[in-house]
Amino acid sequence: MTARLLIAWLGFSWSSVCAQQIVTIHSPNGAVAVSVRQGDAGAVSYQIQYRNKPVITPSGLGFVLNKPKLTLNRFDIVSVDSSRTDETWKPVWGEVSQIRNHYRELLVGLQDKSGSGVGLRVRFRVFDDGVGFRYEFAPQKALTHFIVADELTQFTLSADHQMFWMPGDYDSNEYHYNKTRLSEVDALAAASREKDIALKSVIGPNAVQTPLLLKTADGLYISLYEAALLNYPVMHLQLDKQALRLTAQLVPDAVGNKAYLQTPHNGGPAQTPWRTVIVSDKATDLLASKLILNLNEPSTIADPSWIRPQKFVGMWWEMHIGKATWEKAGGKHGANTRNVKKYIDFAARHGFDGVLVEGWNEGWEDWFGNWKEEVFDFVTPYPDYNLDSLTAYAQQKGVRLIMHHETSGSVTNYERRMDAAFAFMVKQGINTVKTGYVGPIIPRGEHHDGQWMVNHYQRVAQKAAQYKLMVDSHESAHPTGLHRTYPNWMASEAARGSEFNNAPTLGIAPEHTTILPFTRLMGGPMDFTPGLFRFKLNQFDSTRTQAVRTTLAKQLALYVTLYSPLQMAADLPENYEKHLDAFQFIRDVPVDWDDTRILAAEPGDYVMIARKEKGAANWYVGAITDENSRDLLLDLSFLESGQTYEAVLYRDAPTADWKTNPEAYIIEKKAVTAKTKLMLHLAKGGGCAVQLVRK
Ligand code: NOJ
Ligand code: CA
User: CB count, 10 Å around CB of 643?
Assistant: First the structure.
């Protein structure tokens, strides 16, 4: 191959214009282009275009280090390499049974111009739906142990776009999303509206979290995020409203440093997570993107046969709405043997895999507020909770208990006790743990989103895998596709989940679940805990005047629109027993899929998704809307042609309305084929769930 042909095949070009070096690489189909440019003084910038429209205009790269004291922002480009990859891999579980990983790669070698002798590389992967890039520090004498004071990565925008954002916060990602132009962001005002978040570390008026969703006036949807967040803090973004620029704002540790790195790291380079820019002119394409997963490393678990997607019920919501308590003191202890047996019976009767039990272990009397180091030991059940007998009972009924480990932020304590706790679970035949990190992190001063905690979450996933345990983490950092590498880390919360329906002030706005797929879910499955069937929350406590802002049909649709291999049916058995006909959908809906089609979506407005059951011919559709009612046309052409399916529609009744009549639903059956088109009417705050069973 001649050099020219080789360059065309690899899809990149290198030119020198007016003493500037410019390297450009295109994605396999040419839609996405990245250019890296070295200016006169050595500043290196990159830019991204999508079908010739600007996505990221020239934006800087680099670092400030604390040790050695060094600013890395002037470089010589010393090498440029490229390659291409086109492979297909199968996730252990997921939205689709196989994933194509198809990109062109550009590896740019940079040498610090100041004479420090420090070199680094920036690796760009250019996909048809976006770009990932990361920094790599190869083992080198000039840089063995080093401390990152700041990352200088910028994302400069071409205009004052619409953004869906939440305040940058070192400890919480449980906010609503705000929709404003970049220039209108007021993160402090947004944060102060959210009175129900217990622990906030808001960065400042102009800092926002990622994933950040942007919508441009010329019709592009852009997601800024990160992939493979390992051994590094979470990246938030600082806005410069004049310059329309966002700059990486890494989460600091207790003394203000951002990251402690070393070379070699695990025998290779020290590296940052991937910075990702996903882009399309169709909102639906963003939701179908597999870019984040593709940028993560393959599974580290050789035999994943013990990892099972599952649905569960649990001793949980009754504590949140005041029927019972986590603590034993006070006489309303929920996790007592008799009560948990009821849940096991209910789970067995309706075909659920698991029963989550919170408040089973000693320590809840003083877990919140005093933030002590020694609260829970994770192996001592309350005396009224006979775990041995419940384990046997559950086993006999074909159900597994799910263990809860609330650490109350005392992570040093949890790390010391993790082996004993996991061995205890194995002894009890329990294979799933829900972890939680409510409260300030001990050692004091670390943040939920800092490097120290990011390393902790990884250690939990790795250690749990040694014990063949599946993990569902709450209050952890936002997920970045690590479920490819650690498929036993099934889900996390890391956003405002259904528990906030019970919060006294803002609750969950109807549009929230139409934004989540475009933001939080870009990184991985969420334990949102849908399935509430009773919307007035004063069932056991008359002071709870708040109501869930949804219709019942929408709660069903969320099982399809909010993908997770771990799905809870969150409400109480007695509330499901009043609507067993609607509950049938939760019983039937799978948690693992062969295929997924994003049929219609607009962030903040509506989402309609169809998914095909793993290993079966049946499809399920979920359609949800915000506070507005709307009609969505469901075109069933994704069904196998020539086949007849029975469609069971769980839909809002004509009179349904999240404010005035949320429980009004209709269940309707009809024969359909690939030629059928159904007009789905979604009530205000409503939704529709459809089961399609091949005859
Ligand atoms: C917050 C979690 O998100 C919730 O699910 C749990 O019940 C409480 N913490 C208590 O651990
Ligand atoms: Ca939470």
Answer: 12
